[in-house]
Specification:
Blueprint lengths: L7 H10 L6 E4 L2 E10 L2 E9 L2 E11 L4 E7 L9 E8 L3 E6 L5 E6 L2 E3 L8 E2 L2 E3 L6 H14 L6
Antiparallel strand pairs: 1-2, 2-3, 3-4, 4-5, 5-6, 6-9, 7-8, 8-11, 9-10
Helix pairs in contact: 1-2
Length: about 160
């Protein structure tokens, strides 16, 4: 399976999004298979399919500083109406924990350092859950979150 994250951007991608090289997702009529194409910024590309329609999407996790990260989504206008959009922001200084549901399809984010954008919340609404785009290993996820605790010196405890 995918190895341990080497860069903080890769760790954010895994902890908050379930993204890693070789990660995959099958949920309902949607399948996604991820390939990492960059480490810093962390870039993950997927040949995806929903109800038989195939499309390519890309997530880019870029560090703004050691504590804050911007996650951008690029894809066809049927998936990303603007073609490219800020999908989420992470402020590690304001995240107090990240855990994964037993079925590993969502991450619970404690604190107020995670927000997502969307048609209903274009300005990045604080959320306490994040859909994962790839299956995660619970122990690897715990280790990744612990690593992120060393990345941001101002991290809330």
């Amino acid at each position: 399976g995918p190895g341990r994250a080497e860069t903080p951007e890769e760790a954010v991608a895994y902890a908050f999004m379930g993204l890693a090289d070789g990660a995959s997702l099958v949920r309902g009529q949607t399948t996604m298979s991820w390939k990492e194409t960059g480490a810093s910024p962390a870039t993950f590309e997927s040949e995806s399919s929903t109800a038989g329609r195939t499309y390519q999407i890309r997530f880019i996790v870029a560090a703004e500083d050691p504590c804050t990260y911007r996650i951008t989504l690029e894809g066809p206008r049927t998936v990303v109406p603007t073609g490219k959009a800020v999908y989420a922001r992470v402020d590690l200084a304001r995240v107090t924990g990240v855990t994964v549901t037993d079925d590993a399809i969502k991450a619970y984010v404690a604190g107020d350092g995670f927000c997502e954008t969307g048609s209903m919340n274009p300005t990045c609404m604080k959320l306490d859950t994040s859909d994962l785009f790839g299956a995660v290993d619970i122990e690897k996820h715990k280790a990744t979150v612990a690593f992120l605790g060393t990345v941001c010196p101002a991290r809330a405890e």
